[in-house]
Amino acid sequence: MKIKFMGAARTVTGSCFIVEAGARRFAVDCGMHQGNREIEKRNWDTSGYDAAGLEFILITHAHIDHAGLLPLIVRDGFRGPIYATPPTLELMRILLLDSAYIQEMEAQWKTRKCLRHGEAKVEALYTQRDAEETTRQFRGVDYDQTVSLGAGVTVAFRDAGHILGAAILELDVTEDGKTSRLVFSGDLGRPAQLIVNDPTVIETADYLFMESTYGNRDHKGEDESLDELAEAIAFSYRQGEKTIIPSFAVERTQELLYCFHLLDRDGRLPKDMPVYVDSPLAVQATEIFRKYTKYFDEESKALLKKGRDPLCFPQLRFTRSTEESMRINTSEGPAVVISASGMAHAGRIRHHLRHNLWRPGAAVVFVGFQAQGTTGRRIVDGAKSVRIFNEDVAVKARLFTINGFSAHAGQSQLLEWLGGFRNPNLRVFLVHGEHSVQEALAEKIAARFGYRVEIPDYLEQVTLTPGGEIEREMHPVPAKPTIDWEFLLGGMEQRLGQLRERQARLEGKGWVEQTDMRERLLELDQRLASLISEL
Ligand SMILES: [Zn+2]
Ligand SMILES: [Zn+2]
Fold first, then answer.
1. How far is the CA of 499 from the centre of ligand 1 (A)?
2. Which residues surround ligand 1, an ion (CB under 5 A)?
């Protein structure tokens, strides 16, 4: 049996593992590569997935880094079923449509820019139509049902406690009469997270593919989140100003609603302070949560039984239209605004920040990870002002960063979950983490459990022995060249063109450039020639 790591290998995003067993070939997850430009280029060359040659795809949960490439793979010719839990399928539908819309908008914007420079039109990575097409291949599988996928492959989805419907996959693959159990953790939730259950403890596996996002650290201050939220609200309420919360539309927003429900119950949310959820995607996601309360944890179910909706409280308002959204900022008085995107680099949240960030009485609350380069990160890092809609907006509002909301297990929680396995010969592959983080976790695992841990690289392929015996070969594929020649040469050609133009202009004016550029260019030319001969 072979496993090929198409993403989430020594990095967090792009989860996709292609399994080949005999004549069977299928994928676990199909995520988008996100982060820097170099990583995002992977989205544009999907030939390695051989989409038409995949029989089916299993999706662990509805996050873009696990499902975001599906429309592209379908467009490339994948015609098989896409299996996931029912709430995952519904959440995935709205997320993929939203992602497609963003792709189309981005392509439109880039096209306008390219046409101005006399360059060709830019195509969207995929369109809303592609996303709609993809949903026709969706097939629902509930938790804890063992489903046969034909000829020696069965799967069971177990609750991963990460977001609504998220699953750990238990795969039994029979090859040459021997069965191996492969467990894919997907993203593992944090025990005691609101709304969802704790991650299911798994005891049996031969091979484990485990996420490692927070493999080197624990979350701080988990219990204080509610108090911090109450403090932010009280602060802006006293000043008659607003509390602005950039939040991810799925899970984080619903968790926040739950927190507001609890604050209201305890009399800590002023009665005359409306709480707006201002993100069409978050509104849709909340509806899906309401539909699937049977996937909630016991605490939430107990509340529902008593007739109390944990995602509701009297001050809650949902806004859909742009007009409604704009009205929030023209109306005076204290309010809470929860809006997307979670890192404040896109979406309606930017309007709310433009209206409030410069107000000393307002509060801005960060409840999620802020990636490098985003507006959110710049604010958290202490920028005096940030650029929003081509305008410098001063950062004068009081900032709160609440760390207790992570939907991922921290290091000790990952180790605790790993402690559930009973096979002393378990082989562990760490995925979905930064390399240095994975190395730290691998060391801990080896020390505590004695398991052999592998940290596969991007596009690496490993061969697993049926039955989970100790023998195992690694077949590292030679790493892709790290120099992007296309990009480099393109840039040089462009620069040369500019230089020629400049030279022509200067000559036209009868000027001669007085530089030692000629010498340097000749030297560069020689160095390039020797480099080329080495290739
Ligand atoms: Zn996730
Ligand atoms: Zn993930």
1. 47
2. 63, 187
Q: How far apart are CA 524 and CA 286, in angstroms?
A: 59
Ligand in nearest proximity to the CA of 432 = 2
Q: What's the gap in Å between 7 CA and the centre of ligand 2? A: 11
* Helix, strand or coil, per DSSP, at residue 57: strand
Beta-ladder partners of 155: 147, 171
The Cα–Cα gap between 239 and 328 comes to 17
**Number of helices (H), then strands (E), in the chain:** 16, 23
- Of the candidates 464, 461, 462, 445, the residue with the CA atom closest to the CA atom of residue 453: 445
- CA of 270 from ligand 1 middle (Å) equals 33
CA of 271 to the centre of ligand 1 (A): 34
- Which helix (H) or strand (E) segment holds residue 128: the answer is helix 128-135
State pLDDT tens for residues 7-65.
999 999 999 999 999 889 999 999 999 877 888 899 999 999 999 999 999 999 999 99
Find the 324 Cα to ligand 1 centroid distance in Å: 31
In sequence order, what are the beta bridge partners of 363? 243, 398
359 C-alpha to ligand 2 centroid (Å) = 35
Query: What is residue 75's predicted lDDT score, i.e. its pLDDT?
Result: 96
Q: Calculate how far, in angstroms, residue 29's C-alpha sits from the geometric centre of ligand 2.
A: 10
Q: Are 324 and 330 in contact (CB under 8 A)?
A: no
Using the Cα atoms of residue 60, residue 63, residue 65 and residue 68 in order, give the sign of their dihedral: positive
Among the bound ligands, name the one nearest to the CA of residue 252: 1
Q: 341 preceded by cis ω (within 30°)?
A: yes
Q: Summarize the confidence of residues 339-351 as an average pLDDT.
A: 88
Dist. CA 65 → ligand 2 center (Å): 5
- CB contact set of 332 (below 8 Å; sequence gap of 6+): 240
Ligand at shortest distance from the CA of 29? 2
- Gyration radius of the chain's alpha carbons: 26
- pLDDT tens, position by position, 155-178: 999 999 999 999 999 999 998 888
CA of 187 to the centre of ligand 2 (A): 5
Q: Where are the alpha helices (DSSP H) in 342-472?
A: 349-356, 375-380, 411-418, 435-449
Q: What is the pLDDT of residues 519-532, one digit of tens each?
A: 667 777 777 777 76
Q: Tell me: the pLDDT tens digits for 307-330? A: 999 999 999 999 989 999 999 999
